[in-house]
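If your schedule permits, I should be very grateful for your opinion on a structural question. I have a record of one protein: its chain in single-letter code and its fold written as discrete structure tokens. Kindly check, if you would, that the fold set down in the tokens agrees with what the sequence suggests. I remain grateful for any guidance, and I place the record below:

***
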Amino acid sequence: MSNAINWFEIPAADFGRAVKFYGTVLGTELQQMKMDNIDMGMFPTQDNGVGGCVTYGNGVKPSAEGSLVYLNGGEDLAVPLAKVEAAGGSIVMPKTQIGENGFMAIFTDSEGNKVAFHSMN
């Protein structure tokens, strides 16, 4: 097993708002598609890396409890973290050093999900 995770889904109460939030914070465009009756906003991935999406439908509900997904914060997670509040989220834990493992920060997205960023700087 090369990765413990190979896919993740972040639930949305308002699909358009969630896609806009993550597109703004991450400075990218999520590819939107529909699978059956489920709306999906796909995060970009490279080289068969771990993929994921924002999802709406099929009874999914955002939550600040449960599993914590760490998104790639790029070269310095302070860059996307600085966009969280203006995009409709809130910072739960600011950029925090975690020893030789780099830095992390936790935020609540526009839908009420607790999500984290990780970067080495």
Q: What stands out?
A: The chain is about 15% helix and 35% strand. The beta strands are 7-11, 31-35, 38-42, 51-56, 69-72, 90-97, 103-108, 114-119. The first strand starts at residue 7 and ends at 11.
